[in-house]
Amino acid sequence: MGSIKTVAVLGANGNVGSSTIKALLEEGFQVTGLVRKSSTATVPEGAKRVEVDLSDASLLEAFKNQDAVVSTISSITPGGALSLQKSFIDAAIAANVQIFIPSEFGIDTADPSASRYVPFIEDKIEIADYLRRNQSKISWAAFITGSVFDWGLNIPGFGGWNIADRSVTVFDGGDIPYEATTLRQVGKAIAKGLKAPELIKNKYVYVNSFTVNQNQVLKAIESAVGEKFTVSKGAVEDLWQSGATQVKEGDPFGVLGMIAGAIYGKGNLANYSATKGLWNEKLGLPHEDLAEVLHKYLAQK
Ligand SMILES: NC(=O)c1ccc[n+]([C@@H]2O[C@H](COP(=O)([O-])OP(=O)(O)OC[C@H]3O[C@@H](n4cnc5c(N)ncnc54)[C@H](OP(=O)(O)O)[C@@H]3O)[C@@H](O)[C@H]2O)c1
């Protein structure tokens, strides 16, 4: 594979998409942010904004002259958008794109049992299989990032946290370790990875900002805000089950409880620093500190 200079990002205005574009620009890539024709979305300054209608012809046109395509397409969307990635991959192959990064950025989907814990992971695993089957035509790399830390804190109640109310539910005693990665670090990992495409080629790439548990995060948040939180106790199994029941009853947002349950250890797929090791050093990722990240995060609120 040659060096990567041009990168197209699908889902350019999304949580992961916009931080990825910023990181790619910082690393000197020429970046195109792709948005659907129906979308009013803007893309971060410095990237070119291109509208696509997601038809094969429109994708082929958009992918021409791109060395890499990064998909950050939404997983929590009615009807499911993740499976659309098969046509993105086909178009990328037709346009001679060198490497495709699928929309992953969560728990360890290299373990096929992952789909038992979060329903949309079935689509992520299928897409990874499709890429493996086509890896003679296009390279790929799947970035596993555990819990996207600031994304989670932005959603009141997610994973038990409610910062505005100064309250938290601590699950199973709060000592279960998990990987947490800031949106900035997710973007950095992709950008640093594309700087070293031979290193990441056809691999699962495991990164984080820090390995933490809920008690450590609570202590750090309390110290950052200078106030004690009201703490309730919960069980990971109940958190996950109530999400699964909501999903069964037709509420797609029940998946949030299932995701949080998986982060807090259901299936043991979010503590991969212990099982798979981290790529942070190999990629040259910046060190991130929990207290510093929280200070910055809370200062912006
Ligand atoms: N582990 C974690 O804690 C965590 C947290 C967040 C995200 N993630 C993962 O990161 C990935 C990206 O998530 P995100 O939160 O960044 O996504 P997002 O912000 O919800 O959405 C990204 C983009 O997807 C496009 N999109 C939405 N619905 C679509 C549809 N039906 N068809 C086609 N495109 C559609 C939109 O693009 P336009 O409207 O601009 O075209 C949107 O800007 C997902 O795989 C998700 O599972 C993981």
Automatic annotation (TrEMBL):
Classification via InterPro entries: NAD(P)-bd_dom_sf, NmrA-like, NmrA/Isoflavone_reductase-like, PCBER-like
UniProt domain NmrA-like: residue ranges: 5-236
Keywords attached to this entry: NADP, Oxidoreductase
GO MF annotation list: oxidoreductase activity
Annotated PANTHER family: NMRA-LIKE DOMAIN-CONTAINING PROTEIN (PTHR47706:SF10), NMRA-LIKE FAMILY PROTEIN (PTHR47706)
The name this protein goes by in its record: NAD(P)-binding protein
UniProt lineage: Eukaryota, Fungi, Dikarya, Ascomycota, Pezizomycotina
